[in-house]
Amino acid sequence: MAENGASAREAAYTEGVPCWVDAQLADVEAGKRFYGELFGWTFGESYGGTVWAYHDGEPVAGLAHKPDGRLPTVWTVYFATPDAEALSRRILAAGGQIVTAPIPVGELGVAALAADPEGAVFGLWQPGTHQGFGQRHEPGSFARVELYARDPEAAGAFYEGLFTDALVGPDAEPDFGRAPLTEVFPAEMPPHFLVHFRVEDCDAALGTVNRLGGRAQAGPFDTAYGTVGMASDDQGASFAVLQR
């Protein structure tokens, strides 16, 4: 990572800005095949067996093996913070939960998992040598994350209380939005974050998802921030594709 690139990322990823995503998968090799073809990603090993995905040579996501088959197969978004311990205390004070306490990830940084008062799980990332996305808002990389909540107004108050930059990201891009759980989702679906990846053609991306053994779940449909399609990969991890 070039020094000027690292300093730019450090300045961009202020507290509350989505800075990284990873998928917990039963079969990482299958994940590499699926997402490699869907988004044009290449892959390299990172810390502790986690695989990093690259687009145009820049890190855009992580794929990790689930340590326990009973754990959900999911994409998780991580919000930047200069102090994961302090933010964890604020989350608890605001009525959230700490799922996994802050733990060092080698020299890369410190990671933690938390949940908001409705149970939506998200990550915290305190950077070390790894600041976050090397590329975003471009085809094949992170575009935004949407929180689907039973009470979007209460959820908004929770995150606004934690993060000054939570609802509008850097570079004038709306990185974080919120919406109510609707009939698009199964009745038993809990509140959750849905990671969106930018694509050139939403219809074509959903077609590729189906061809690769995944499932196009909804869309394409138009939103205020672009055309969206909801999908799951061939292992059941849900995500969205976004065409601006």
Description:
This protein is α/β, with parallel strands linked by helices. The protein has a single domain, classed as Roll (2,3-Dihydroxybiphenyl 1,2-Dioxygenase, domain 1). 22% of the residues lie in helices and 40% in strands. The chain is built from five helices and 14 strands. The strands form two sheets. It has an eight-stranded mixed β-sheet, covered by helices on one side. Strands 10-9-11-14-13-12 form a six-stranded mixed β-sheet, covered by helices on one side. The two termini are 28 Å apart. About 4% of the residues have low confidence.
How do you describe this structure in short?
With 244 residues, this protein is of the alpha/beta class. The protein has 5 helices and 14 strands.
Q: What is the number of helices?
A: 5
Q: What is the assigned CATH homologous superfamily?
A: 2,3-Dihydroxybiphenyl 1,2-Dioxygenase, domain 1
Mean pLDDT: 90
What's the number of extended β-strand segments?
14
Instruction: Kindly state the percentage of residues in helix.
Output: 10-25%
The SSE order reads HEHEEEEHEEEEHEEHEEE
> How many structural domains can be distinguished in the coordinates?
1
* CATH architect. name: Roll
CATH topology: 2,3-Dihydroxybiphenyl 1,2-Dioxygenase, domain 1
Could you give the order of strands across the largest sheet?
2-3-4-1-5-8-7-6
Shape: globular
CATH domain class name: Alpha Beta
Structural class: alpha/beta
Beginning-to-end CA distance, first to last residue: 28 Å
Which consecutive residue ranges, at least 5 long each, have pLDDT under 50? Answer: 165-173
What can be said about the biggest beta sheet?
8 strands, mixed
